[in-house]
From TrEMBL:
The keyword Transport applies. Its EC number is 3.6.3.31. SMART domains: AAA (SM00382). It comes from the Bacteria. Residues 34-264 form the ABC transporter domain. It comes from Streptomyces chartreusis NRRL 3882. The gene is potA_4. Pfam families: ABC_tran, TOBE_2. This is Spermidine/putrescine import ATP-binding protein PotA. Transmembrane segments: none annotated. GO terms for cellular component: ATP-binding cassette (ABC) transporter complex. One of its GO terms (molecular function) is ATP hydrolysis activity. Keywords: ATP-binding, Hydrolase, Nucleotide-binding, Transport. InterPro entries: AAA+_ATPase, ABC_SmlMolc_Importer, ABC_transporter-like_ATP-bd, ABC_transporter-like_CS, Mo/tungstate-bd_C_term_dom, P-loop_NTPase, Transp-assoc_OB_typ2. PROSITE patterns: ABC_TRANSPORTER_1, ABC_TRANSPORTER_2.
Amino acid sequence: MPERPTSLTAGGLSADDLAAALAPRSSPLTGKSLSVTGLRKSYGGTTVVDGVDMEIAAGEFVTFLGSSGSGKTTTLMMLAGFTEPDSGTVSVDGRDITGLNPGKRDFGFVFQQYLLFPHMTVEENVAFPLQLRGVSKAEIRRRVGETLQAAGLSKFAGRKPRELSGGQQQRVALCRVLVYRPPIVLMDEPLGALDKKLRDQMQTEIKTIQRELGLTVVYVTHDQEEALVLSDRIAIMKDGRIEQFDTPRGLFEHPRTPFVADFLGAANFLNGKVEEPAADGCTRVRLDTGGVLTAREHPCVPGQRVRAAVRPGKLRLVSAEEGCCTGTVETAVYVGSLTRISVRLDGAAPGTPPLRIETAVAPPRVGERVCVTAEREDVSVFDATDGG
Ligand SMILES: Nc1ncnc2c1ncn2[C@@H]1O[C@H](COP(=O)(O)OP(=O)(O)OP(=O)(O)O)[C@@H](O)[C@H]1O
Ligand SMILES: [Mg+2]
C-alpha cells in the first residue's frame, strides 16, 4: 500500500492502518451518544458555564470553539467528571452518569500537555490503561504491540517520552487512549503545542481514526480552521454559553447572532431600517449610508432598526446598479490569491470602520469610486439591539 502523504513517520503506517489494527475483530466499534442538559458552573460567584445543553450523536465529531475564557475546558471537564457541575446532567446512551467518577466513565482523554508518564517507556505508557482495566498480560502485550506497530512507533517502544519528538509524543498519547477503544474521546487543544505542519498532519490522522472507528469525539480548540477541518458540528461558545451549535456550513451561511457572524470570518456590519415587504418575501434593508441590501426572508418588521452582516468575501464590486452602495477605495492590498480592499462608504458616520472586501478579480485602485452589493443568500439581518 502506498504511504499516505500525511503519515507522520517515514516508513510508518498510516492512520487507516492504525484504525484497522485497533478495530475489534468481531463487532464494529461505535461511539456512544452524549447528552448534556442545563450544565452550570460558578467559581467564587462568577458563572463560567451558564446552562449548556447539547445532544451529541454516536460517532459524531463535535468541537467547542470560542475565545479564551469562554468556558470550553470547564465544560469538557464536567463531561469528563473531573469538575463537578453546580447543576445539570450528563448522560451516555441515555444513562445518567453525572455522579460517576472519571475512572468509571470509560472516556478517553487527550490533553494539550501529553501527560505521558515520564518515567515509563512508550510501551509502558500505552499498556497502562489496559493494566488499570485488569486485562491479562498476554492480551496487553498483543494489543500494545499491535497498536505501536500500526502507529509506526514500534522502534520507539523502549524509549522514554523525553527521547521523542513532539509529534511522536502526541502519537503515543493518542495510542494510549485508542488502545482501550473508548467509545467517547474528549480532547482539549491536543495539538496546541505542535507547529503548523505537524498540526495539519495530526488533524488528518485524528479525523481518519475517528471516522473509521466510529468514535464520538468532543474536541476543544480556539483555532477556527482546526474546528472547520475536523468537526461534524461546532458549538460556538461565548461567556459560558453556546451561541450556536451547528454544522460548519450552517454557522457560515446562517449565523444566528452577530457574534457568530463576526467570529467566523469577520463580518461587515451595516446599519439600516427594514423596508415594506415586497412580493418576493425578501427582507430589504435601507442602509443609513444610502443604498439597499436585499437578504433572504428574516423575522423582522418594516421600520425595524437592524444590522445587516456580510462577509468580506461576499461583498461584490459592481458597475453602478440600482440600490448598490457607493464609496471610495481607501486601501488595496494584494495577499496572494486575492486582494483585500477597504472602502469608505459615502455618507458613513465619522468613526465607522470602512467596509472590508476580498476580491479575486480585477481589484480597483486606491481612490477609485466603486459600487458595492451582495447576493441575498450572503446577507444576514439582526436586530440593531442584538449584542455581539
Ligand atoms: N478552578 C477555577 N477556579 C476559578 N476560576 C476558574 C477555574 N477554572 C476556570 N476558571 C475560570 O473560568 C473561566 C472559563 O475557563 P475555561 O478554562 O473553561 O476557559 P477556556 O474557554 O477553556 O479558555 P482557554 O481557551 O484560555 O483555554 C475563566 O474565566 C477562568 O478563569
Ligand atoms: Mg481551555
